[in-house]
Amino acid sequence: MRDVATVAKEEPVQVVPLSGGLGAELRGMFIRSEMSSEEVDFVYEMLLKHRVLFFRNQHQITDQSHRDFAQNFGEIVSHPTVATQDEPTILELHSHRGGRANSWHTDVTFDLRPPKLSILRAVTLPDLGGDTVWANTVAAYEHLPDNLKALAEELWAVHGNDFDYAASRVELLHDDTAKKYRRQYAAQVIKSEHPVVHVHPDTGEKSLLLGHYAQRFVGCNTYDSDRLYEILQAHVTRLENTVRWHWAPGDVAMWDNRSTQHYAINDYGDRTRVMRRVTIVGDVPTASDGAKSRPHEQ
């Protein structure tokens, strides 16, 4: 079923859900440097509802309008460890320069304040493959058995950038470019302790905060941490919790980093895939009992 909304004086915007619990396409909405408060409020309302939004045919977007649009939703934050040359507020993810994020993760959870949301646009696409999949971490928590919910509520995890998806891919171990990216990524080691179950600051929903940056659970040895992680993460990535997007030129995706994980599928060989991302600063995650995330003492 399609919802139709009228924002400002533009043509009606169609909201087309893409699955039962995650993702929607906003048809008729065009990203520009100047957008009305009604448009911005509408987009954010839809983001909180659907968690991932997709905009097709955004061929007009530039780095400047990309940034301008993002700033409607908060302060832009640069990546804490990856240097960018021309545009410090825009992270370029280039498939030939270490930018194949083919592991389930929530962005930058090693930071004390993981991003609120991200806006990603396609720059160069392979002629096949390269889809991105998102998972609903709120639904993952809600569908846990009660005993697992109780356990997860008690757990805290150490997240670190010295254990990221670029380092874990066996196929990249002998790739000089990937090694250089890895060295840059972890040149400054950052670690934080986050509650495994955190409360969304805008909706009050509980969500699982895991993903590839989670190294171990506080108070657990490596063996137990690995087993617990596998159990909880499997609930996140159940196909029923996911939506998959096949990129086309002009596509833009926007997601709530506080209620999702994502995975960029690396199935396009040596073809080129280039994406550009702007990220908005987030809050310090809060546990169900009100405790806040904290820096990890190394």
CATH topology: Double-stranded beta-helix
- Rg, Å, rounded: 19 Å
Class based on secondary structure composition and strand pairing:
alpha+beta
The ordered H/E elements are EEEHEHEEEHHEHHEEEEHEEEEE
Structural domains: how many: 1
Please give a quick description of this structure.
With 298 residues, this protein is α+β, with helices and mostly antiparallel strands. The protein has seven helices and 17 strands.
Q: How does this model look, in words?
A:
The chain is an alpha+beta fold and 298 residues long. The protein has a single domain, classed as Double-stranded beta-helix (4-Layer Sandwich), CATH 3.60.130.10. It is 22% helix and 26% strand. The protein contains seven helices and 17 strands. The strands form four sheets. The chain has an eight-stranded mixed beta sheet with strand order 1-2-3-4-14-6-16-5. A four-stranded antiparallel beta sheet has the order 12-8-9-17. Strands 13-7-15 form a three-stranded antiparallel beta sheet. Strand 2 and strand 3 form a beta hairpin. About 4% of the residues have low confidence.
Which characteristics define this entry?
298 residues; alpha+beta; Double-stranded beta-helix; eight-stranded mixed beta sheet; four-stranded antiparallel beta sheet; 17 strands; 26% strand; globular
In terms of topology, how is this protein built?
Layout: E1 3-5, E2 13-17, E3 24-27, H1 37-50, E4 52-55, H2 63-71, E5 91-94, E6 117-124, E7 132-136, H3 137-142, H4 146-154, E8 156-160, H5 165-168, H6 176-185, E9 191-195, E10 197-199, E11 206-208, E12 214-217, H7 222-236, E13 242-245, E14 252-256, E15 260-264, E16 274-280, E17 294-295
